[in-house]
Amino acid sequence: MAAAAAAAPLPLTCPPPTSATVRSLTADGHHAAALRALSSMAASPSLRPLDHFALPPAIKSAAALRDARAARAIHALALRRAMLHRPSPVVSNALLTAYARCGDLDAALALFDDTPPPLRDAVSFNSLISALCLFRRWEDAVAALRAMLADGHPLTSFTLVSVLLACSNLSGGRRLGREAHAFALKNGLLHGQERFAFNALLSMYARLGLVDDAQRLFGGGGAAAPGRSDVVTWNSMISLLVQNGRFDEAVETLYDMVALGVLPDGVTFASALPACSRLEMLAVGREMHAYVIKDGELVTNSFVASALVDMYATHEQVGKARQVFDMVPDSGRQLGMWNAMICGYAQVGMDEEALRLFARMEAEAGFVPCETTMASVLPACARSDAFAGKEVVHGYVVKRGMADNRFVQNALMDMYARLGKMDVARGIFAMIDLPDVVSWNTLITGCVVQGHVGDAFRLVREMQHHHQQGDGVDTSAGVVPNVITLMTLLPGCAILAAPARGKEIHGYAVRHALDTDVAVGSALVDMYAKCGCLPLSRAVFDRLPRRNTITWNVLIMAYGMHGLGDEAMALFDQMTASDEARPNEVSFIAALAACSHSGMVERGLDLFHAMERDYGVEPTPDIHACVVDILGRAGRLEEAYAIIRSMEPGEQQVSAWSTMLGACRLHRDVHLGEIAAERLFELEPEEASHYVLLCNIYSAAGMWDKSAEVRNKMRQRGVAKEPGCSWIELDGELHRFMAGESSHPESAAVHEHMDALWERMQRQGYTPDTSCVLHDIDDGDKAAILRYHSEKLAIAFGLLRAPAGATIRVAKNLRVCNDCHEAAKFISKMVGREIVLRDVRRFHHFSDGNCSCGDYW
Predict the structure, then answer these.
(1) What is the pLDDT of residue 8?
(2) How far apart are CA 38 and CA 19, in angstroms?
C-alpha cells in the first residue's frame, strides 16, 4: 500500500494499531500515519483483525493527501475482505468521494455503477452528485438527482448544497433553482439550523443574477430566518451584493449586521471594504478601519489589511495605505497584500515606489511574483522614466512562465501601446486564443492613447462580430462591449470633437442600460462638453441618478471652457452645499480656470484664499498656475509674478511660468516675458511652445532680430514647432487640414471658397492681424499666410459641405490665433451660421459677429 511521508512513524513500543487508532489519527490530521496504521493492521490480521470501521477514516486520509494509489489499495483490500458493500455501503461511498478528490472521476463513476442498486443509499447518491459537481458535470449532477428521487431516497441538506451549485451553472438554472428552493421549503430543508443549505441558496441566486431573490430570501424570515445569527450568512450576503455591483446595499447590510449583534470577522471587512472603494465612501471605510484597529486579531489579518490598502489607494490616500501595510508584521504579509500596495502605488502614478516595493518583495520577503503582481508592475514600467529597459521586463515575464496568462498579456499590450509600439501590442493580441472583453478593451485603449481613434472604433465593430473557435465551441456572436469599452471610446470622441460618434455610443449605452452608470455618465458629460454640445452635457448630468466628484468636476470645467463663469461657480457652490460629493484639487482647478476664462478675478482670488481654510485642500503647483492665469489675463502681471516667486523653485513652477509667458504675450510685456522664457528654457528646453510664445512677444514689439535669435536657438537645439492642425466631422467622417496644405481631396474647392470669403470679409471691414505672423516679411505676404490657416480652411470646408443652417464645429490642436478669431466673427455674421471653435484651451462660440468669450481669452 502506498503511504505518504508526512508524519513520524509510530513508536516501536506502542501497542498494535486498531480501528480506533486509525480514526484518531485521521481526526487529528495525521493522514500518512493513519494509512500506515491501516497497512499494519492489514499485514498482521492475527494480532488485530481488520474490521469495516477502520476503512472509512483511512479512505478519508487518502483523499486528504490526494493519494490515488492509496485509495486503490484500500479498494482492493475491501474487495478481498468483502467489506466494500457489507455490512453497509459506507466504504464504497467513501471511496467514491476519495476517487473524485484525487482527480479520478472515471474510477468514481465505475465504482458507483458496480454497486448493486439495492445497496445504494442516499449517501451514495450524494457522493456521486458531489463528485460530478467537482468536475463541473452539471447536467449529469441533475440527472443523478432525478435518479436518486426515482429510487425513493430522501434528499438531505447535503444533497441540496450540491444541487444548488449545479443549478447556478446551468442555462436553465433559474427555473431549476426555484424548483429546488420550493422542494427545500416543502421538505423542511431550510429550517433554522440548516445554515449551509441556506447559504448555498443565497449563493445560487447571486450567481444566477437574481440578487433581488437573494435579498428576499435573506430578509424573508426576519431575525428568525435561517442564518440570521450566523456571520457566514451575513458575509455571503455582503459578498454577493458587492460582486453584483450593489455597493450601497452591501454597506447597509453591514450596518444591519452590527445592529443585530452579529460580530463581523475578517471575511466581513474583506468583502465590504471594496464597496467603500467603488462608492468613494472614504469616511465609511475609515469607520471600518477604526473597528478593525480595536480588534487585535483583525488588525493583523492579511486579507483585511489588503482590502484596507486597496480602499485607501483607490481614494488616492497612498500614505494611509502604506501605514496599514507597515503595521502588519513581515511574517503576516501575504502575497495579496504586497500586490495591493504595489497596485495602489501604480494606480496613482507613483511608479518608482511601485517598482521599488516590487524589488523588495522579491529580494527581502522572498515572494515569487504572480500574474496579479505583473499586471500592476508592467504599467509602472511603461510609465516610469527611471526604468530604462522597459522591454526587458517582457523577457522576465517569459522566464517566469507567465507569458500565456491573460492578465499578463493584457498588461504587456498596454505597455507596448504606451510605448507607441502598436504593432507589438497587436502581435500579443493575436496570440490570445479567445480574447475576452478586457483584451479587446486594452487594445482599444492603446489606439485611443496613441491618437488612432478611427482604429479604435473599427476594433469595437470587429469585437462585436469577431468569429472565435475554441475548445470545439463556436463563439461567432462576438464580444459585447461593456462599461470600460464605452469609457475608453468617449474620450476619443472628445479629442476629435466628433459628437456624431459620441451620440452613437450614448445610444448604445441607453439600449443596454449602461447610461446610468456613474463612470459612463461622467464620460458622456465630458464628451458632449468637449464636442461643444453643452446643453446635452447638462442634460446627461441632470439625469444621472448618482454623481461623484468626477461628474461635478467635468461639468464645472466644461462651463469654464465655454466661458460661462457664473454658471460654473453656481455649480461649484451647489456641489459644496450638497452631500453628494466633496471638492478636491481638480474641483478647484476647474473653478479657478472658469474664473480666469470669464474675467472673474476677485471671485477667483477669494476662492484661492478660502480653499485650504474652508475646504481643507492645499494649494498645489497647478492651482498656483491657475491663479497666475487669473491675474495674468487681467493684466496684473506683477502680482502674477509675485505668486510664482512665492512657490518653491524647480520643475513644479513650469506650468506657472508657462502661463505667465502666455500672459506676457497677451499684454506685450517684453521684460517679464524674457524672464519667464529664460526660466522655461532651463526647465523644459525641448518644449517648442515656449520659444514660439517668446517669438510672438518679440514680433509684436517689432523686435525682429530678437525673434530671429529665438528661432535660431530652436534650430540649434533641434526643437521643432508643432504644426497647426484643425479638423471637422461631417457624416461620421473626420476631415483634417494643415495650414496652407493641399492634400485634402477637396483642397482646391476649399481654397477657392476661402478666397471668396476673404474678399467678402475685406469688403465688410476685415483687416488681417499680421502680428500673428512671426516672420519679418511684408504685410501682403503675411496676409497670404493668414488666409490659409488650418482653422479657416476647416470652417470653409464645413460651409461647403454641412447642411444648410447646421452649426459648424471645428477643433484645433493649438491655441487659435488672433486673426482666425477675428475672421470667424466676420464669417459667422456674413453667412448667418453659428461656428463653434475649440482650441487647446477653451471654446469659442461665434454667432452674428460676436464670440462667447467677449474677446477675453
Answers:
(1) 45
(2) 8
Q: How far, in Å, CA of 285 to CA of 298, rounded?
A: 15
Angle in degrees, 0-180, between the axes of helices 90-101 and 55-64, rounded to the nearest 10: 10
Q: Is 35 helix (H, G, I), strand (E, B) or coil?
A: helix
Identify the CA nearest to 123 among candidates 137, 135, 112, 109.
112
Question: Each residue of 443-461: pLDDT tens digit?
Answer: 999 998 888 888 898 999 9
Which DSSP category does 651 fall into?
Answer: G
Query: Which residues does 352 contact at the CB level (< 8 Å), separation at least 6?
Result: 384, 386, 387
Could you tell me what percentage of the chain is helix, strand and coil, using 3-state DSSP and rounding each to the nearest 5?
Answer: 65, 5, 30
**Residue 586: which of 544, 551, 534, 562 has the closest Cα?**
551
Assign 724 to helix, strand or coil: coil
pLDDT value of residue 507 = 93
Q: Residue 413 in contact with residue 442, Cβ under 8 Å?
A: yes
Give the C-alpha separation, 334 to 331, whole Å: 8
Residue with cell 450593489: 246
* Length, in residues, of the chain: 857
Residue 612: HSE in the Cβ half-sphere, 13 Å Cα cutoff:
8
* CA distance from start to end of the chain: 89
The SS3 of residue 209 is coil
Residue 559 phi, psi (nearest 5)? -60, -40
What percentage of the chain reaches a pLDDT higher than 70? 94
Distances (CA, A) of 417 to 129, 342, 428, 771: 48, 21, 11, 41
Q: How far is Cα 434 from Cα 596, in angstroms, rounded to an integer?
A: 51
* Cβ-proximal residues to 172 (8 Å cutoff; 6+ apart), any chain: none
What is the dihedral angle through the alpha carbons of 548, 550, 552, 558, rounded to the nearest 10 degrees?
-160
Average pLDDT value over all residues in the chain: 87
Residue 774 confidence (pLDDT): 63
Can you tell me the distance from the alpha carbon of 555 to that of 552, in angstroms, rounded to the nearest whole number? 5
CB 660 within 8 A of CB 672: yes
Nine cell digits for residue 307 = 482590502
Give helix then strand counts, H and E, for the chain: 44, 8
Compute CA distances 246 → 136, 208, 545, 678, whole Å.
Answer: 28, 15, 14, 55
Q: Where are the alpha helices (DSSP H) in 364-452?
A: 371-383, 392-399, 406-418, 422-431, 437-449
Report the distance separating Cα 135 and Cα 96, nearest Å: 13
- pTM over 0.70? The answer is no
Peptide bond before residue 154 is cis, with ω within 30 degrees of 0: no
Q: Where are the alpha helices (DSSP H) in 701-817?
A: 704-717, 747-763, 779-787, 790-801
| Cell of residue 654, nine digits | 513650469
Question: CA 522, CA 505: separation in Å to the nearest integer?
Answer: 13
- On whether the CB atoms of residues 709 and 679 are closer than 8 A, the answer is no
* 835-838/808-812 β-pairing: parallel
What pLDDT is stored for residue 472 in this prediction?
42
pLDDT, one tens digit per residue, over 286-322 is 999 999 998 878 887 888 988 999 899 888 889 999 9
Q: Compute the distance between CA of residue 668 and CA of residue 198 in angstroms, rounded to an integer.
A: 77
Out of 189-198, 575-584, 623-632, give the one with best mean pLDDT: 623-632
Residue 377 grid cell = 508592475
Cα dihedral angle (490, 491, 492, 496), rounded to 10 degrees? 110
Written as nine digits, the cell of 288 is 471600518
Instruction: Return the DSSP state at 8.
Output: P
CA distance 586 to 563: 18
Phi and psi (nearest 5°) for 712? -65, -40
Over range 257-275, report the average pLDDT: 92
The CA distance from 235 to 239, in Å, is 6
Order across the sheet with 843-847: list the strands.
733-738, 725-730, 808-812, 835-838, 843-847, 850-851
